[in-house]
Each structure stands twice: as structure tokens, then as C-alpha cells.
Amino acid sequence: LPCSAAANLRPGAEQKVVFITARVHPGETPSSFVCQGIIDFLVSHHPIAKVLRDHLVFKIAPMLNPDGVYLGNYRCSLMGFDLNRHWANPSPWAHPTLHGVKELIIDMYNNPKINLEFYIDIHAHSTMMNGFMYGNIFEDEERFQRQAVFPKLLYQNAEDFSYSSTSFNRDAVKAGTGRRFLGGLLNDTSYCYTLEVSFYSYVLGGTAAAVPYTEEAYMKLGRNVARTFLDYYRLNSLVEGPLAPTPK
Question: What region holds the Peptidase M14 domain (predicted)?
Fold first, then answer.
């Protein structure tokens, strides 16, 4: 289909939604730069971005903990809560941003015209290098294998993304996180991840030298995350003209 006639945008058609959140932990500033890279790319005139906008709906909450960020907190909100442990039952009074986002996600999940296919929560990591992902563990082996597809594609697009550091777990300590809670709530066509990026550096494949992260490098990772949806949904043939590279 030409972009203007994309099935995702026809009145009454099912919408494929990618939901992205960031900065639930105020001190993890790299997550904001990664999220900014995603947003800047998606609203750009890049031919890949145009195809993605025609075929997918992106919902982005770039700062889940604005009061914690304003106060300069490292992990908690104004009320002293680690919001990423309260997804199961967020309070509209104590955790208002989390409550609002969760309500929106549940409303979309219950809408038969919306298919919420991805949830990605962006964080920064203080001890590990590179970008990497956490995913969930499922009893269904096929679902577990399908969940590995997106990080494998991202590894091919982003030189600073490490698939070897990507892991899938059901650690009890993480039970209240967005990735764990929504992974248990949404159906088997939805994939929930935590995207982590190092606070300090990354190592390129085949080398041992650490490359310091910069604001631009974080935003480049964000652009590559957005670019990977083109590969995941096999939309490459719809990009007009020669396939332009993702901005470096």
C-alpha cells in the first residue's frame, strides 16, 4: 500500500501502537536524551520516519517523574516513592503520572481497534556499559523467541547496543516495574522491554576500548531504536527513493 493508504490509518482500522516512556528515575538523565532522539527522528522529514508515521502510532511519555526531576532526586518522586515499583496499583494521589499512563494503556488494551504491540521503558545503568534490554520470561517458548527479535534487530542497527548484555528475567524485585507488570497484563502479541543505556561509555564489537557516551551518542541510539521498527515490520520497500541512512 502507498503510505497515504496505510491500513493503520484508515477510519475504523486497527491501529498498531508503540508506547514509550522514560525518566521514571529522575537521576537517569541519559534516558531523556535517548527519548529525545526517538522523538526528533519520528517528527523529522526523513523518509523512514514518514513510513513509520504512516503505519504505526507512537505514544510517548518522555518524563514519568517530573517532580523528582525538578527536585534533583536520584530515584524517587516528591512523595518519596520509587515509581517503577508501583505499576501494579498506582495511586492517583501519590503516583499521578504512573496512574494516568497506566489508565491510558489499559484503555488502549481494551479497545478492539487498537493493538498495543510494544511497550519500551527507557532507563540508564550505572555499572554496565553499552545499551541493552531487559525482557520477560514466558512459558510459551514461541512467544519467548519472538520477544528476542526486536533486540536482535536493534543490535544490527546500533553499534553501541549489546545483545549479549540483553537478558530476560522474572526477578521478584522487578515485579512492580512497567516492563514486568505490563508483560503480565498484555496479550501474547505485545512485547514489553526495559531499554537500558550506560551512564558512561560503550565498547564497540571486536574492540576493548571504551568510547565515552555523549548527548549526541545517546540521541543516536534513540534514532536507531526508531529505525529498527522499519525492519521489524518489514516496511523497507515503502521508503521512497534510495534508503537514506539514519542521521548519524
Answer: 1-233
C-alpha distance from residue 196 to each of 28, 46, 101 (Å): 10, 26, 20
User: Residue 79, Cβ neighbours under 10 Å: how many?
Assistant: 13
Q: Please give the grid coordinates belonging to residue 35.
A: 527519548
* Cα gap 29→8, rounded to integer Å: 33
Q: How many CB atoms lie within 10 A of CB 78?
A: 13
Tell me the per-residue pLDDT of 1-40, one tens digit each, with 9 for 90 and over.
344 445 566 777 789 999 999 999 999 999 999 999 999 9
d(CA 94, CA 91): 5
pLDDT tens sequence across 147-203: 899 999 999 999 999 999 998 876 666 666 778 778 777 777 789 999 999 999 999
Report the C-alpha gap between 173 and 164 in whole angstroms. Answer: 22
Q: Which residues contact 53 (CB under 8 A, 6 or more apart)?
A: 42
Q: Which of 135, 123, 201 is nearest to 163 (CA)?
A: 135
- Which domains are present in the chain? 14-240 (3.40.630.10)
Place of cell 489499559: 106
Place of cell 491500513: 7
- Please tell me the distance from the alpha carbon of residue 36 to that of residue 216, in angstroms, as a whole number: 10
Residues labelled catalytic: 196
